[in-house]
Sequence to fold (1110 residues):
Amino acid sequence: MNNTLIIAEKYFAWLPRFFKLVTPERWVIVIAVTLAVLSTAYSFTHGYIIAYGDAESHLNIAKRVIDSLTPGFAQLGGIWLPLPHLFLVPLVYFDWLWKTGLAGSVVSGIAFVVSAVFLYRLTFVLTKDGRAAFIAAIAFVLNPNILYLQSTPMTEMTLIVFFILSSYFFIRFLLDDTDLLMLILAAFFGFCASLSRYDGWGLVLVEAGVLVLYYLPYRIRDGWSQVLHGMRGFFAARSDKPFGERFGLLEGRLILFSTLAFFGILLWFLWDWLILGDPLYFTHSQFSAASQQQGWLARGELPAYHNIGVALLYYFVTSLESMGILLALAALAGVYVFLGDKTKKYQILILLVLFVPFLFNVATLFLGQSVIFLPGLTPPTFEWTLFNVRYGTMMVPFFAIFTAYLFYRSRTLGRTLVTGVVALQAILFVVGFSPVLAFKDGMSGLSSAIAKMPDAQAWIAREYDYGMVLTDDFARTISIVRTPMKMKDVIYIGNKPYWAESLVEPEKYARWIIMQKNDVIWRNLIDKPELNARLFKYFNKVYTSEDILIFRRIDVYPAN
Amino acid sequence: MKKDIFIILAIILFGATLYTLTLRGAPGNPTASEFKDNLDMPTYAFELSSERGRYVHVVSLAQRGTFDITEEWALVAYPDVGVHNDKYYSFFAPGVSYFTLPFYLLGSKFGLGQVATFAAESIVSIITLVFIYLIGRRIFKLPLWAAVFAVLVYGFGSTSWSYAITLYQNAFTACFIVTALYAAWCFGESRARFAWLYAVYVWLAYALAITVDYPNALLMLPVMVYLAYLTFLFKKTEGEGIAISVRWAGVVTALAFVIVTGFHFAHNVYYYGGWSKLAGTLESYRPYTTATTTPIMGTTDTLTSASAISTLPSVLLGTTSLVLATTTATTTGTTTATTTPMKEKTVSGFFHEQNIPNGFSILMFSDERGLLFFTPIFLLSFLGIWYALRRKGGDRAVYVVLLCLMALNLFLYSSWGDPWGGWAYGPRYLIPSMPWLALFVGVALAWGGAAFSKKIIALALFLYSSGIALIGALTTNAIPPKSEAMFLPINTYNFLKNVPFLQEGKSGSFVYNTYVSAHFSLLEYFLIIYGVLALIAVLVLFVSLFSRHE
Fold:
């Protein structure tokens, strides 16, 4: 027995009207802002904003620029790129925003919303389909790794927004190379990306390389498989002009692009040279990532080092899990569909630009410049099995775009399936089947500060009254934002001449000394007998644990 | 049609013959005292706790009329035993025990209780073989030879063989999924008066599949979505709205599911103390003793006579075990029963996305359980899938459903904490996907060009795969994962562990041990069966008898 029910149009006519209240792009803004506020409120109320050790460091760097013992731009240092910290500077002026970490939430939150909007636009450029573009934005803003990171002062969102912006304008230029403004904007945002995280350097390099490929005058014969159609279509389309003319175009546009895009990198070399006396300070100083990886290497715990297969596997799985495995697989199907789409041009080049985070991270893992520990891949015999997994979130825009592309190229059943996959993946995150890696690392991984908070932290937060504090900030013995200290009360390695003098005459400025086993202060004041005697002459040891010692000046101790 | 009937009869006969020749067991109706260090040894009928855990309930139902087991039998099923209200239960879903009860009752009258119980699995597997053939012929529209070859691949060219001759849930699961899919397709095709019976069967199969293995609730979802797709037809009508055409038979027959699941819940309430309480979530039972270390043969599981460390208890949900705690296994002497409070167990807690990279590689490629390592004939399935997806026309919805079934199966068990399936032979968790993979092998051979070359390749792969399948079926399923094998004197963790058994004549085969061992060595027995199988495969692939008139 069959029955046919008719749901009259009038019953659901409100639906399109509702969605047309504002444009899809504005819906994206509304949704992104709402989610940003909600997730930040969640992180704030649960104390997760500064869960990462690096999160506090970013806040502190910005704070020191304007409010420290020796304020100034030199406080930006020479390892981490400066732009995210510069964005924080006006906000961390307010102690409350600094200590709660909300200064970072504001910066990352804005980056998140702009990212969502331009992800929508980028997908729209590729598909000319508002619904597909909306799916891309939704897949992005619903990603819990992204939602968490946008509530923190971490620099990933800053990079992601500039990555998306630069890619958006660059792809628009590829689709219409007469519009030079697009190329200039791509270069500008590439410049910003290159001053946000080193991944940005990879972006501008690849974009420059793509420009070269774009104008190279050669043709690939017909007969290639459908997968290579994009490459064939692109090159065939570009081979219609004589070599000289094409070379001239390449020369001009490459110079135009590179002048601005690579300026950030040049500035950074210059900065390190002027401030630290070594243009390559960021690559080989004791604070550089590469130096830190040497420790892992010595312990045999740098699995991807000089092993391309393992490097590929680590980043592939990390990025898959950051997106959620279902959506990532849908996106990979979308990539396949994109490459085979005969209606499009320049697929390979577009893919190359969007694929930069993957290439960059695999390269850095392979070269030993970075390390990722991921449960399931990292042997349980390693000291840590969860570290730096947030790098995988760089691929979320890529996956979001190509999930949407799959949606765009599907018919009704396929579109329903893709939408279902987006919803199902969200559910899998909620029920805990899919781990929220970036959050988990902040809570319990090696990146976490709160997982390793020592007892000394609570002690100093309770006992600190006033006076300067000598501490080795690089060792992260205690969390400054979680104490009543002001930043101008802290003497750390970046305070010349206070730091160097305090290591010889500890009583000269400091009322408090906080040291951790084997940090710079410990090696100077504990391990050197002559200074050790001086230390105990002027200071009382007021806190002792296995690893941390805290001293308080004797002569200024309140009399009562 | 007449030809199809002839072929179906041949499949039944051939399947019954090969399964009978390899069926695990020994004469008799074993009592609890006969298990320890006897029937629970490798190559014996109850070498692993999956068989024991289900069989003890069969015996209890037959002899005591109740599902719970006595403490004496609890020790037999140990370590996969839980306790509720001072009553003992194995951690396995109850369905298999109920389904095989009639066979036990019948067999026990002839002193063949165990053999008859295990034979139920073979019957279920033969039903699966028949429906693979029907699906190949009617849905895939495969030529006769290709459909028959798909049957051969599933039945005797894959490690499903090892689980068609012993007491596990895998064969039941495969049977329910295959028959339900076929019934759903028939429901969609038929407008006959009694077409609703097809829908009844689909719902019944879904409910019954859950009783044999709880994860089937998820695993069978694509079939149920397919049924919904056939039941509800959405159509946008110009100017009117959306027209939903409903075949009410597909909806009303859900009553069958409700009734069966109602009984299932009632069983859970009566025995486990709550309708949603699953066997695997019961509090673990641990017998205490001192005395010497006498190993307990784990199952799916973890314990073995020679293991340097033993791990217990293992928690089984459905059929699967997961090691939760590590301790030293000691039994013998007087045994004091006790229960150990453990962390609350949840179903969802065992599935985790982070297990997927490892689980996927274990199930697909590893030399421990890898599908393509044990059964490389399935390499051709990928070609078949490619052909099916590119083919215009045909029943694409079915292809999508089958792909979803396989993807879900792989996804689910890759994310499972124990993708090895404990001690097992091959990727037993992928058995529900094997019928479809076998059918896609048929597709790969029947469609597209280079037919002869593909058949040659298929034959070579089949000979390898069926050899591996047969050696497992004749000897043992008790193959440890690599991590546990490292602690064993024989450091092997795949079919290489079975080879010495074959050479030494140690077989679990009831027919061989009872009737043939006096006349042939096990190796000769193996070669005879293998030779027949190879001959049949050659005939199916190359002799025009099968392909004529197609």
Observations:
- DSSP finds 24 helices and eight strands in chain B.
- Strands of chain B lie at 81-84, 87-90, 232-237, 241-247, 283-288, 314-317, 320-323, 336-339.
- The first helix of chain B runs from residue 2 to 22.
- Chain B touches chain A at residues 237, 239-249, 348, 351-358, 400, 411, 415 (CB under 8 Å).
